[in-house]
Automatic annotation (TrEMBL):
Protein source organism: Mycobacterium gordonae
InterPro entries in UniProt: HNH, HNH_nuc
Boundaries of every HNH nuclease domain copy: 53-113
GO molecular function: endonuclease activity; nucleic acid binding; zinc ion binding
Species lineage: Bacteria, Bacillati, Actinomycetota, Actinomycetes, Mycobacteriales
Official protein name in the record: HNH nuclease domain-containing protein
Amino acid sequence: MPLSNRPVKCAACRQPINDVISAFVSAGQCVHKLCPGPNRLLAAKRRHRHEPIKRATVFERDGWKCGICRKKIDKRLQHPHPMSAVVDHVVPIKLGGPNTYVNVQAAHWKCNATKSWTGHGDQLALIG
């Protein structure tokens, strides 16, 4: 079977990802209700706390202001717009940060992507 015709499976729960939900798939993750997700699995493996994070709660708490550039986030913009709202982990889970409300902030997609590509910026220096 050609590689392009093989069913894609969720990296976390190993369930097949179908075309209906493919619009919500990012980097092999799925939106199955029972899927623990890669962040939760990684947190459990490293014995870190994991809270279910509601995006709207984070955005309202932060006043729709980017925690990285400190500029306002336009609520009307949606992904894939570079200035759309995303939830950013201040200390990335990969580096031992917990998936909790204390460790997340509202951010522009572009700011978060730039932070990820540049080694997480100055924010980690503030923690240590």
